Amino acid sequence: MNPRVIGACCGRSDPQAPLLKTLTFAILHFSIAFGVAYTLTGSVLTGGLIALIEPSCNTVAFYFHERVWQRFGARPRRESGHGHGNLVPSERRD
């Protein structure tokens, strides 16, 4: 498989990729937050409120964190050594 296709969702080329990733994470987070809050309180209302407030704050923070990470985050390491091999970017990223 082509590694560029596999990682296309989270690549730098699609500015909407962080939004899609954020929305799917939000659904997961809402579900877990409700389950935990309901289990601890036994109240659907309290569980629902906690499940809406806490993940909403985290979702917004996660979106901006992802945007910053794309801009300033991990960069590919520069190849070391001598010769013309340094002129060709490596496909491998550690």
From TrEMBL:
The keyword Transmembrane helix applies. Residues 19-70 form the DUF2061 domain. The chain crosses the membrane at residues 27-53. Residues 75-94 are annotated as: Disordered. InterPro entries: DUF2061_membrane (IPR018638). Keywords: Membrane, Transmembrane, Transmembrane helix. This is DUF2061 domain-containing protein. It comes from Pseudomonas aeruginosa (strain ATCC 15692 / DSM 22644 / CIP 104116 / JCM 14847 / LMG 12228 / 1C / PRS 101 / PAO1).
